[in-house]
Design goal:
The chain is an alpha+beta fold. The protein contains five helices and nine strands.
């Protein structure tokens, strides 16, 4: 099974979210999500300072075999994007939870974070998809 860190929150559409000490959150695509896509060749990131609604399409990941939309797991304002992915999108394949993060944002409502899936629920989600 894919690497699913216990400390992160997840969505059923394979995004992860990590709460940072300053109140912001970091968002990326899960190991399972990047495995399904295959080798990434292009990443389109959101604009900084844009306000995103929960479940709003905000990024596109393109691989040699497919393109996938990435949705914002919570509502908030984008504070930073991972510029390294522009020239080297395969960082997401090699390090989805560390160097391969997509963007950081400041949440509109902290409670949105607690409503996401924990690692066990995300594992169940992946198992359900397989059937």
């Amino acid at each position: 099974m894919s690497n699913i860190p216990e400390e992160l929150k997840y969505t059923g559409t394979h995004e992860w979210l990590r709460q940072e000490e300053d109140g912001s959150v970091t968002v990326g695509v899960t190991d399972h999500g990047q495995c399904m896509l295959g080798d990434l060749v292009f990443v389109e990131l959101p604009e900084e300072d844009i306000e995103l609604d929960k479940n709003q399409e905000c990024c596109v990941l393109e691989s040699v075999k497919a393109a996938a939309d990435i949705y914002s797991p919570i509502a908030g304002v984008v504070t930073e994007v991972n510029e390294a992915l522009t020239g080297t999108p395969d960082i997401v394949n090699r390090s989805p939870y560390d160097e391969g993060w997509l963007y950081r944002m400041m949440p509109v409502d902290e409670k949105d974070v607690t409503n996401l899936l924990d690692a066990a629920a995300y594992r169940d989600c992946i198992k359900a998809e397989a059937h």
